[in-house]
Specification:
- Chain A: GO terms for molecular function: DNA binding; DNA-directed RNA polymerase activity; metal ion binding.
- Chain A: Its EC number is 2.7.7.6.
- Chain A: It comes from Salix dunnii.
- Chain A: It is found in: Nucleus.
- The complex is a heterodimer of chains A (1241) and B (138).
- In chain A, helix 2 crosses helix 4, helix 21 runs antiparallel to helix 22 and helix 42 runs antiparallel to helix 43.
- In chain A, the strands form 15 sheets. A six-stranded mixed β-sheet of chain A has the order 13-19-18-21-12-20. Chain A has a four-stranded antiparallel β-sheet with strand order 14-17-15-16.
- With 1241 residues, chain A is an alpha+beta fold.
- In chain B, 33% of the residues are buried.
- Chain B has an eight-stranded antiparallel β-barrel.
- In chain B, strand 6 and strand 7 form a beta hairpin.
- The chains are: A alpha+beta (1241), B mainly beta (138).
- Strand 23 of chain A pairs antiparallel with strand 5 of chain B, so a sheet runs across the interface.
Chain lengths: 1241, 138
């Protein structure tokens, strides 16, 4: 027999998570019957008053103290608890007559559609009934499938009823159509189509009464709640199961209202005496009043107006509003001011879900304006003393820190560094505001917890909204500083996307050692230098740091010993030893170069073991050209080849490519890869300090003289622009004269636009080139654009030379007036100036019209930024994998974050002019939503013989849709005295030219194959080659009309090609060098439109290489795997066209999620639902109330597993470190046998 | 290594630094060199004695690589322009008789390329620090 293992003695007690006394395992949604409500209630509420004459809550009223403590002073009459202790108790309120619950109305309707309105049985016959029941009972059927099945049944039953009346197979009752009543909350049973004689009987009966005058809709029955209730009560269990109802359907109708506890509808007292009741309370009061009115009505049998029991409708209305105040009810039933209902409490941004459950208020936070401080390390954040005195950290007293904490306690709450509170081991705590502090400090013992002010080195979380990716919240070390702003190193601006124009940021202080450790290790700045989006470095030098590095490492920067030594000491506040290298120039005077300074920066002294080897080509690197065929590498005359060898800067002027963010082989990336985050971080710190101090002394600013063009520049610009204008004018003249050579697949207007746009874009480029060439190297904007800290050559040339063409929606300025963009120009003018070309620079100033065009272009940028936010929300996908990383979240962030930068939502040429494809955010949206109809479907066709243009043309003819009207010379009506017909003459010349194999016989067949026309035809005669005679059939009296309608329809007959194809463009392929050797241009085709299968099947098309950008079509044609590939390729293509690189695995994950169920499911409301997610998650996302009502009808059980649910319930989420639990292997206990040994063993 | 170079053309991409091209008389070397022309102006057609050495100490004590002020009596006394830098690359071009070697040195970013016969560069070692000493010949 084994002894029980002795308790392990730990040197340190392991951390055991305190899960509290209870843990919520799951949430069960259900409906409550009247008896359920009665059981849960403590009292009946029947009085529509709040207080008696003594201002005390009336018993049986809405504020009955049996439902909870009314305020801080009162106690609960049921449990005796105080305001803080008592959670509140329900009351109940009996309604005189039942009413519908508006949330369940659609469910009630569905049920009524399916059952007989006489015997409550499902209208299906026995066989179908059995079949469906079997499928519904199949334990392997998923809830999703069951839902669909239920919908199918509803559809089946209602379709039976909509066409004609359905006779119940069991009782023979004739059922009509059931539908929602128009104006009021109610249900109509439409029996107008019935013909069982009942109607006539009724009519004649009514005709004899006095009320016959009143227009009573006889044929429609209003199904009142009482009737429905009785129907539901009689439903058999089997039918409930068939209709996928978890519970009895009668629970969907309200007979008793549960009066919620006072704590969720507290009264507010203003000026001490006046009480202000909650909206819910007020509404309940109305319910009680209307209920009483209805009771009276019933008792007296009184009727008001033409309708009987109008009070019932009123009660229905008020109960409806109690649940959802957005439901529209007749105007005459609205009473008083609008009050919010329960649904309003839950939904919306301010609703319970998004305001209080999915996001919670927290303590130990701060928020203020941010400002930069290059003297801080990148891992630090400067916190104002004001903030540090309020934010505290509970530190446990040990003999190591007792002196420090004693001092803190002595200082108290207001003096920094102090403490706000002391907690003793017994759980009691004392605030440190009084004079007794000194005593407390003296009595401080190990084990006490001192809530001390923040101090240097404390771990804090730092965040800026919008939190688009995980680097928007990172962990820093605190530095307590004077003044009022939060400060951090500019290098960390990038991940937060922060600038200092008044941005504010948030600060959170983790309160336990575990939280600190986790935060520091997982969210620390130094551990998040790279983005998970694509592995590029994100925390890197920016702006001034780049500028100063660029200037320091210029080839002709020299320093004497004093200057060089000073700069060496800038890097580390003169605190670190520096080994001074031998100067580059020893004689005639000792001079050090700026590049040597960077060698020192990387490796200050011989004991630093950092040896970086790195090659980067900066922007200014001169690529091989005519003069220098060979790569010049380090000998580049512009010094653009950055080469570090053993931490020594050999050559190259440093810029953004080396030091900046957004690259994978810059200096910091290499340091991070070959050494560690610390090495990279130290390097950034040194550079920040050096740059800030150096550029402060050196001076760097921008003035008007920086943008003043010289004489030469002005002359050249004038020449360039006038030559460009001449060219455009010539094009316009050609266009007007009809002499313009058309581009493939374009008409004259498009060609003109394309050519002019091309020319004008070139114009700006030329002006820009001149401008860049003429500027002095000391020009500040030029320096900034060269080193990549800010601005581009385009920005410079816009300031100095020419602003260039303004575009709106991807084309030149549109016509805001009739035939012209602005009334300053003649009509139909196509000159550059009339269509938004701005020839002036910002320096020379824009003319009035130019200014207007510029504002048009500028507005577009603003509109686009607003569009994104919605889409970004849309792509909320959470998915987790086993090791517990929320890869879905990371993927979503990685794809969503660049969306913010996709400002150009417009179209983009796909290699061929005039062929547009949707790009940017709209395209991403299409892909992710799995749109069935996309705006620009394009099939890229590869040809079997791709070097022959003629072959390509023939195939184009096979694919492109050609209508009869396009190949017919004439389609005429011929009327003779004997007959009337339509003569079609084919244009055989065009047909031959277009290489279409067509003749009259084929056309005849094709016309006969068109069902719409065939119906109207008598016969078609082929007269000769290329001529047809079509004879209309039908009624001779209508012959004339038939002829004309035929004449209109004939030109639309598709004689050749694929109907779904709009247009085909042959394109010459851009050749790679490798392919170039085979000689001759290669061709492929772009097909605008759908019909992938047909295109692939066309003769001459290489179906294996043909692609489509229509995901749904790819799935239908080629299958789910192809669709997955298509999704990946399309997202990648779209992102790349905007210059954004995203790790392919994110896109693969997205594609996997979308295709995992075998069909393409969009990441939309509907798609996510189909992925079978939890109710709480769906409710917190969109359509809160619908999901909740649906969940209670279906009796859903929400296991609190997902991220959203855990956040709502306040339970640690099972991702990341949350997946790990301490596991202990417990040996199985030995079997103990106390009884007698068995006789037979 | 020591030789006399005649300065050919030069190009000036920077204010204070020019890249000069020069040919040697004895070893037929072709040199490209960035020179700080602000402190040491160089004109075309001038002749210079050029020496590459690993130490300035006359008795050949190796250099530390870190800053040491020039002591009187060192080799430096004989020259009027001295740079210090690192040999970072040796390139081989062609083969057989036409084989040429190019050495690349960086004097704190001021680059030097020395192209010539393989024999005359045998003594040079990669990653070795060298002093470039120049003296104008009249």
């Amino acid at each position: 027999m084994q002894q029980r293992a002795q308790d392990i003695i730990y040197t340190k007690q392991p951390y055991i998570e305190d899960v509290g006394p209870r843990r919520i395992k799951s949430i069960q949604f259900s409906t409550m019957s009247a008896s359920d409500i009665l059981k849960a209630s403590e009292c009946q509420v029947h009085l529509g008053q709040y207080y008696d004459s003594n201002k005390k809550a009336i018993v049986g009223g809405l504020l009955d103290t049996r439902m909870g403590a009314p305020n801080k002073h009162g106690t609960c009459q049921t449990c005796g608890g105080s305001f803080t202790d008592c959670p509140g108790h329900f009351g109940y309120l009996n309604l005189v007559l039942p009413v519908y619950n508006v949330g369940y109305l659609s469910t009630i309707l569905d049920i009524l559609k399916c059952i007989c309105k006489s015997c409550s049985r499902v209208l299906l016959d026995e066989k179908l009934h059995k079949k469906y029941l079997k499928r519904m009972r199949n334990p392997r059927t998923e809830p999703l499938k069951k839902n669909e099945l239920m919908k199918e049944i509803v559809k089946k039953c209602s379709s039976m009823a909509s066409s004609k009346a359905v006779k119940c197979l069991r009782c023979g009752y004739m059922n009509g159509m059931v539908k929602k009543a128009g104006s009021v909350v109610g249900i109509i049973h439409d029996r107008s189509k019935l013909s069982d004689g009942y109607l006539e009987e009724c009519k004649s009966a009514i005709g004899h009464t006095r009320e016959a005058r009143a227009p009573i809709g006889l044929a429609t029955y209003i199904l009142n709640p009482v009737k429905v209730l009785s129907l539901f009560q009689r439903m058999v269990e089997e039918d409930c199961e068939l209709l996928y109802l978890q519970d009895r359907p009668e629970k969907l109708i309200i007979t008793t209202v549960a009066v919620p506890p006072i704590s969720i509808r507290p009264s507010v007292f203003t000026d001490g005496s006046q009480s202000n009741e909650n909206d819910i309370t007020e509404r309940l009061k109305q319910i009680i009043q209307f209920n009483a009115k209805l009771r009276l009505e019933l008792l007296e049998g009184r009727r008001t107006g033409i309708k009987y029991l109008i009070g019932w409708d009123e009660l229905q209305a008020v109960v409806t509003l109690y649940i959802n105040s957005d439901v529209r009810i007749p105007l005459d039933m609205q009473v008083g001011r609008p009050l919010s209902g329960f649904v309003q409490r839950l939904t919306g941004k301010q609703g319970r879900f998004r305001q209080n459950l999915a996001g919670k208020r927290v303590e130990f936070t701060g928020r203020t304006v941010i400002s930069p401080d290059p003297n801080l390390k990148i891992t630090e954040v400067a916190i104002p003393i004001h903030m540090a005195r309020i934010l505290t950290y509970p530190e446990r007293v040990t003999h190591h820190n007792i002196e420090k904490l004693r001092q803190c306690v002595n200082n108290g709450s207001y003096k920094y560094p102090g403490a706000r509170m002391v907690t003793y081991p017994d759980g009691s705590s004392k605030m440190l505001t009084g004079n007794y502090r000194k005593r407390i400090a003296e009595e401080l013992k190990s084990g006490c917890i001192v809530h001390r002010h923040l101090e240097d080195g404390d771990v804090v979380l730092f965040n800026r909204q919008p939190s688009l990716h995980r680097m928007s919240i990172m962990c820093h070390r605190a530095r307590i500083m004077p003044w009022r702003t939060l400060r951090f190193n500019e290098s960390v601006c990038n991940p937060y996307n922060a600038d200092f124009d008044g941005d504010e940021m948030n600060l959170h202080v983790p309160q336990t050692e575990e939280a600190r450790t986790e935060a520091f290790l997982l969210m620390g700045v130094q551990n998040n230098l790279c983005t998970p989006k694509n592995g590029e470095i994100l925390v890197a030098s920016t702006q001034d740091f780049l500028t100063s590095s660029f200037l320091i490492t210029r080839k002709d920067t020299f320093y004497d010993r004093a200057a060089f030594s000073l700069m060496c000491s800038y890097m580390n506040d003169g605190m670190d030893p520096v080994d001074l290298p031998t100067p580059s120039v020893l004689k005639p005077i000792e001079l050090w170069t700026g590049k040597q300074l960077f060698s020192v920066l990387l490796r200050p002294h011989a004991n630093v073991r950092v040896y970086v080897n790195l090659i980067v080509k900066e922007k200014s690197y001169s690529k091989p050209n005519k003069e220098h065929k060979k790569e010049q590498e380090t000998m580049c005359p512009n010094d653009g080849y950055v080469y570090f060898r053993n931490s020594e800067l050999i050559s190259g002027q440093l810029g953004k490519a080396t030091l900046g963010n957004g690259n994978k082989d810059g200096l910091y990336s290499i340091l991070l890869r070959d050494y560690n985050a610390f090495a990279a971080a130290t390097c950034m710190n040194r550079l920040a300090k050096l740059s800030a101090r150096w550029i402060g002394n050196h001076g760097f600013s921008i003035g008007i003289d920086d943008v003043q063009p010289g004489k030469k520049l002005n002359d050249e610009k004038g020449k360039t622009i006038s030559s460009g204008y001449r060219h455009c004018n010539k094009l316009i003249a050609d266009y007007n004269g009809g002499k313009l050579a058309l581009k493939p697949g374009c008409d004259a207007t498009q060609t003109l636009e394309a050519e002019i746009t091309e020319r004008l874009n070139k114009l700006r480029e030329e002006a820009g080139d001149v401008c860049m060439k003429e500027l002095h190297w000391r020009n500040s904007p030029l320096i900034m654009s060269q080193c990549g800290s800010k601005g581009s050559p385009i920005n410079i040339s816009q300031m100095i030379a020419c602003v260039g063409q303004q575009s709106v929606g991807g084309s030149r300025a549109p016509d805001g007036f009739i035939d012209r963009s602005l009334p300053h120009f003649p009509r139909k003018s196509k000159t550059p100036a009339a269509k938004g070309f701005v020839a002036n620079s910002f320096y020379s100033g824009l003319s009035a019209t130019e200014f207007f065009f510029h504002t048009m272009g500028g507005r577009e940028g603003l509109v686009d930024t607003a569009v994104f936010l919605k889409t970004c929300l849309d792509r909320y996908l959470w998915k987790k994998i086993e090791p517990g990383t929320a890869i879905g979240a990371i993927g979503a962030q990685s794809i969503g974050e660049p969306g913010t930068q996709m400002t150009l939502k417009t179209f983009h040429f796909a290699g061929v002019a005039s062929m547009n494809i949707t790009q940017g955010v709209p395209r991403i949206k299409e892909i992710i939503n799995g749109a069935k109809r996309i705006s620009t479907p394009i099939i890229t066709v590869e040809l079997e013989h791709n070097s022959n243009v003629n072959a390509a043309r023939i195939i184009k003819g096979r694919i492109q849709k050609t209508a009869l009207g396009q190949v017919a010379k004439s389609i005429k009506i011929v009327m003779t005295s004997r007959s009337a017909s339509i003569k079609v003459t084919l244009d055989m010349k065009t047909i031959r030219e277009a290489q279409l194999s067509l003749d009259a016989n084929i056309v005849r067949e094709l016309i006969l194959e068109t069902p719409k026309i065939k119906r109207k035809l008598q016969r078609i005669n082929v007269l000769e080659d290329g001529k047809l005679e079509v004879f209309p059939g039908g009624d001779r009296n209508k012959l004339h009309f038939e002829l004309h309608s035929l004449k209109n329809m004939l030109p639309t007959v598709v004689v050749k090609g694929i109907k779904t194809v709009e247009r085909v463009v042959i394109a010459q392929k851009k050749l790679d060098d490798a392919e170039n050797d085979h000689g001759g241009p290669k061709y492929n085709m772009f097909v605008e439109g759908t019909g992938l299968q047909a295109v692939m099947g066309t003769e001459g098309v290489d179906g294996r290489k043909t692609k489509s950008n229509h995901i749904i079509e790819v799935q239908e044609t080629l299958g789910i795997e192809a669709a997955r590939k298509c999704i990946i390729d399309e997202i990648k293509g779209t992102m790349e066209s905007h210059g954004m690189s995203i790790d392919i695995r994110h896109m693969m994950l997205l594609a996997d999620v979308m295709t995992s169920k075998g069909v393409v499911l969009g990441i939309t409301r509907f798609g996510i639902q189909k992925m079978d997610k939890s109710v709480l998650m769906l409710a917190s996302f969109e359509k809160t109330s619908d999901h909740l009502f649906n969940a209670s009808v279906k009796g859903k059980d929400d296991k609190i597993e997902g991220v959203s649910e855990c956040i709502i319930m306040g339970i640690p989420v099972a991702i990341g470190t949350g997946v790990l639990k301490i596991q202990q292997r417990v040996d199985p206990l030995p079997m103990l046998d106390y009884g007698l040994d068995p006789i037979i063993s | 290594m020591e030789d006399i170079f005649i300065v050919g053309s030069g190009c000036k991409n920077f204010d204070k630094v020019s890249r000069i091209e020069a040919r040697s008389e004895r070893l037929e070397l072709f040199m490209q060199l960035d020179v700080n022309t602000e402190v040491y102006p160089i004109k075309q057609e001038e002749r210079y004695a050029v020496k590459l050495t690993t130490t300035l100490d006359p008795d050949g004590t190796p250099d530390t690589g870190y800053y040491n002020p020039i002591k009187p009596g060192s080799i430096a006394d004989n020259f009027d322009y001295i740079m210090h830098g690192k040999l970072y690359k040796i390139l081989d071009e062609g083969s057989g008789a036409s084989r040429k070697v190019e050495m690349l040195l960086s004097f704190g970013g001021l680059l030097m390329s020395l192209k010539g016969n393989p024999e005359c560069v045998t003594d040079f070692q990669l990653d070795q620090k060298y002093f470039l000493c120049m003296r104008k010949l009249v």
